[in-house]
Amino acid sequence: MLDYNANQIQWMEYNIPLCDNVEFFSYSYYSSPLVPHETSFEDDLFSDPSAYCFTTRILDAKYEQVNIHNVAFDQHHLLLNQRRNLFNILSKHNKF
Question: Would you list the domain boundaries of the chain?
């Protein structure tokens, strides 16, 4: 439940504080991996066995090379000129 009056989110028995917008848009918010209340919340959450029913394992990514021409020209919502531009951009950044 999102509670703007209390400035928090309630999920199961956990209360997660919302950060204020001044803090959220500051450099220090993004320069640290986790802000303190997130760290303590994660410690509480992952020590609770019932929380695991709400989590999933993130699988390893499997990337395969695609045909850039097909990707660009299969974008039928774009005009032909836009498809050509997309093809040119993708060709510039082709890593293979």
Answer: 2-54, 63-96
